[in-house]
Design a protein that fits this description.
The protein is of the alpha/beta class. It has ten helices and seven strands. 37% of the residues lie in helices and 14% in strands.
Length: 204
């Protein structure tokens, strides 16, 4: 598909055409097999920790959206995969330099050509987004979608960093919990249930 074809498919919401740019979900899950994964959220409280070395020691480091990294000591330096639900400015793209980008948002019109043709690009299926939205009773965060996706794999361990469900707000913006469309209480309870039932998952 060329750029014009992409723009037409995006405008017409041609999901089949857009999905043709994505690696299959089965390939993505296969890449997680036996991996120790660090999923790094954007809670402000993470900046007060010393988890950076532990994050960088994971087999695979996944960050979210603009992936603020205010200090190496708290956040580490590596980004292998970047889970996106927003357009990424060129400066952030160069700073983060992910090896793979995953587009998690159902809002396809926000997806840009540069992201769609990036190596290993993954487009999260609308059906999976909708199923989690129905389960949580509200639009899921990018972090919640990634947690669900990773748990479908045969990963060895998933460590969650920077997930306090908006208790300390976000490093990537100034909005309060009331100003975003997510149900953080429900997401917190859902994650706790996952942790209780799956010993591979640890939240720091």
């Amino acid at each position: 598909m060329n750029r014009l074809g992409f723009l037409i498919a995006r405008t017409l919401r041609n999901e089949t055409a857009l999905q043709s740019l994505s690696v299959p979900q089965s390939d993505l899950l296969a890449a997680l097999k036996d991996k120790h994964v660090a999923l790094v959220g954007n809670a402000r409280a993470l900046a007060q920790t010393g988890h950076g070395k532990r994050i960088d020691n994971a087999d695979l480091v996944i960050r979210i959206n603009r992936a603020p990294m205010p200090a190496t000591a708290s956040h580490g330096t590596r980004t292998d995969w970047l889970a996106l639900a927003t357009r990424l400015p060129d400066a952030d793209r160069d700073r983060i330099a992910p090896a793979r980008i995953l587009w998690m948002s159902p809002k396809r019109k926000r997806l840009d050509w540069q992201t769609a043709i990036s190596p290993g690009f993954y487009l999260h299926p609308l059906g999976d987004y909708q199923a989690l939205r129905d389960q949580l009773g509200a639009p899921p965060t990018t972090g919640a979608m990634m947690i669900a996706l990773i748990t479908w794999s045969q990963m060895a361990r998933l460590e969650l960093f920077g997930f306090d469900f908006f208790a300390s707000l976000s490093l990537s913006g100034r909005r309060t919990a009331e100003q975003v469309p997510h149900d953080f209480s429900q997401e917190s309870a859902w994650v706790q249930e996952l942790i209780s039932s799956d010993r591979r998952i640890i939240r720091h």
